[in-house]
TrEMBL record:
It comes from Dendrothele bispora (strain CBS 962.96). This is Xylanolytic transcriptional activator regulatory domain-containing protein. One of its GO terms (biological process) is DNA-templated transcription. InterPro entries: AtrR-like, XnlR_reg_dom. Keywords: Nucleus. One of its GO terms (molecular function) is DNA binding. Residues 182-204 are annotated as: Disordered. Pfam families: Fungal_trans (PF04082).
Length: 641
């Protein structure tokens, strides 16, 4: 379109006029203009006053804007005047509704959003700025959590954020115990809130390990951008690789199953790690993780401090973010290596960034969608490996986000793929001569993967609690204006947990001793996570001010806190008892990050000992104190593993 034509079009649009319509005086209300043009008349006579409802007004607006030919204005001045008045009234009602909705949304967002000024509020601008005091208080509270402190080496480091669900928040509650003999006032003392943070360890100082561990695990270089060429891998001897890989599949794979053992062992027998760098990195990661549970004298030491370094020489060679290329799709070997890398030092701060990069990389491939698995570009076995790895990323995202108190990267609506196939490795297509038997577990023989699938379902329940109980503001998918919605959500989650427990498969009738050990390890990992999730679910409500309804009386609030505290205490006792029995029989922890569950359980019991008034139960501080000591003993049994 050239400029002159464009100018004419603009002028024609600007000079649009209404054609007087005489449909009111015509038979069947069809105007003479439409009769002469031989077109259907879009005007249907004059509406009565009662007909100007919101629906009819929407129709009128639509008719005016979309009529072809142009909308015909009634020739009656009274009708036109009434139409204009009704349109103005309709517009004013819409503005009032918008204003009301904005105010309700602002209240729901808990000072995150402020009331927006509207055309209908005469004092809108003054009201908009009258909330300055609340805004200043919110901003002051927010800024007080941001600081820069100087390290011993003179460099500046910003403090990291740890939310309410984090272990850091739980630890800080212990620091305040000497000044807070009872939980009834916990978190409400204005003097304690104004105390300098220097009296308590900062987030950065708390996360730092002891000097001994800092020497064992110095910060690896993979979190930096490298330009130097990649170094050749230094592998252990082949027989040691075989020994460590057996330990890996016997102790790690049973609770974190994402490798196919026969396929991996075929790669080892073919010495594929010497020619394929990606597979070589995977082998090093398997050796590093396997060394933690190995009794091979070449890697194991009776000294826990020395044994804590087992596998570190192979772990440091893996640098998942060193040559990260955003244009190069991630491979299956790279994905599996990254998972092992995060397992070696679980819940380690850099894992948060590594997990984020890995999730974005697999989402780029589309393995989070079901339709990806209908393609024919991969074998069925390879598709299943991708699926297992992705579900582990989902679990890591939930668990690591909970540990750090940060929102996860994924929500259930983001992926629609099926759960992993409940089938042991020996029944995969590559191990079956009969294709009809592929991925079919024999009846009466429980799969080693069934506990992992059950655990994934528990993670799904816990993810919902993260999106509701620990949400920064009221989730949009929770409708209504009930201020006590958190208590109702907790009741719903508790019901889901009870239903989940009833469906846990029981595998206690196995004849094989080794298989009994595997199922015992899986059960310890499963139930300890269940107890830990119970604690995390009810922990925000063990004080009056941390989640109970603001409209409830002090007495009812205290009663609710007693119920939540009792649930946390029972879960903590059960978790400690379970792991105490397990650790006396097996010296390898059932899952790498088991110490977090022990720590949370111990802290809950310490809180219960120090604040018996809140529970309303007869305290048995001696029993709880013994349970805390049991936690220390369990950690000593697992030390170096």
């Amino acid at each position: 379109m050239n400029p002159p034509e464009a100018s004419k079009d603009v002028e024609s649009v600007a000079l649009v006029t209404f054609v007087v319509c005489d449909s009111v005086n015509m038979p069947q209300f069809v105007c003479s203009n439409c009769i002469s043009s031989n077109v259907e008349c879009t005007h249907r006579g004059t509406m009565t006053k009662d007909e100007y409802s919101p629906i009819s007004m929407q129709s009128l607006v639509e008719e005016i804007l979309t009529s072809s030919p142009r909308y015909c204005v009634p020739d009656s001045k009274e009708v036109v005047q009434q139409m204009i008045i009704d349109l103005a009234t309709y517009s004013r009602n819409l503005e009032n509704r918008i204003s009301t909705l904005v105010k309700k949304l602002s209240a729901m967002n808990s000072q995150v959003l402020v009331d927006a000024p509207t055309l209908t509020d005469e004092n809108a601008e003054s009201e908009y700025y009258s909330d300055d005091n609340n805004s200043i208080r919110w901003l002051s509270g927010f800024m007080s959590n941001i600081s820069i402190q100087r390290e011993d080496d003179g460099r500046k480091k910003k403090k990291r954020f740890f939310g309410n669900s984090s272990t850091m928040a739980l630890l800080k509650s212990i620091w305040r115990l000497p000044d807070q003999p009872s939980l009834e006032g916990y978190g409400t003392d204005k003097e304690s809130e104004s105390e300098s943070e220097s009296e308590y360890p900062s987030d950065v100082e708390t996360i730092a390990t002891t000097p001994e561990c800092s020497k064992i695990y110095p910060v690896p270089s993979q979190i930096k951008i490298h330009t130097e060429p990649l170094l050749d891998f230094i592998f252990p001897t082949h027989d040691l690789i075989l020994s460590l890989s057996r330990t890996y599949f016997d102790y790690v794979q049973i609770t974190v199953p994402f490798l196919h053992r026969p396929t991996f062992e075929r790669g080892l027998s073919e010495r594929l790690y010497l020619t394929n760098r990606e597979f070589g990195a995977l082998v090093l990661s398997v050796c590093a993780c396997g060394a933690r549970g190995s009794s091979d004298p070449r890697v194991y030491s009776e000294d826990p401090k020395k044994n804590a370094k087992a596998g570190y020489e192979w772990y440091t060679q893996i640098e998942p973010m060193r040559d990260w290329n955003c244009l190069k799709p991630i491979s299956l070997f790279e994905l599996q290596t990254n998972i092992n890398y995060m397992l070696f030092i679980p819940l380690w701060l850099p894992n948060w960034s590594i997990l984020a990069h890995t999730i974005r990389a697999v989402q780029e491939l589309g393995i989070h969608r079901k339709r990806w698995y209908t393609q024919n570009c991969h074998s069925e076995a390879e598709k299943e490996l991708w699926k297992r790895a992705f579900w582990l990323l989902v679990a890591f995202d939930i668990y690591l986000g909970d540990y750090l108190g940060r929102p996860g990267l994924m929500v259930p609506e983001d992926h629609d793929l099926d759960l992993p196939i409940d089938c042991d490795d020996e029944y995969w297509p590559s191990e079956q001569s009969d294709p009809s038997k592929a991925f079919k577990q024999p009846e009466g023989k429980p799969s080693l993967l069934s506990q992992f699938i059950t655990r994934l379902k528990l993670f799904t329940i816990f993810k919902y609690s993260q999106r509701t109980i620990y949400a920064a503001r009221r989730p949009q998918f929770i409708m209504g204006s009930d201020e006590d919605w958190r208590q109702k959500v907790i009741a719903q989650i508790d019901s889901s947990l009870n239903s989940w427990v009833e469906k846990i498969p029981s595998h206690q009738d196995q004849l094989s001793k080794d298989r009994k050990r595997i199922f015992a390890t899986q059960a310890a990992a499963l139930y300890s996570m269940y107890y830990f999730f119970q604690i995390q679910l009810h922990r925000p409500f063990i004080t009056k001010t941390s989640g109970a309804s603001t409209t409830a009386t002090g007495e009812s609030s205290s009663a609710n806190a007693s119920v939540h505290m009792a649930i946390c205490v029972n879960a903590a006792r059960s978790c400690i008892h379970l792991l105490d029995v397990y650790s006396q029989k097996y010296k390898t922890p059932p899952i790498p990050h088991i110490y977090v569950r022990l720590f949370s359980s111990a802290v809950i019991l310490v809180l219960n000992i120090s604040s018996g008034k809140l529970t309303g139960l007869s305290r048995n501080s001696t029993t709880d104190r013994e349970s805390v000591y049991k936690c220390i003993e369990i950690l000593r049994r697992f030390e170096g593993r």
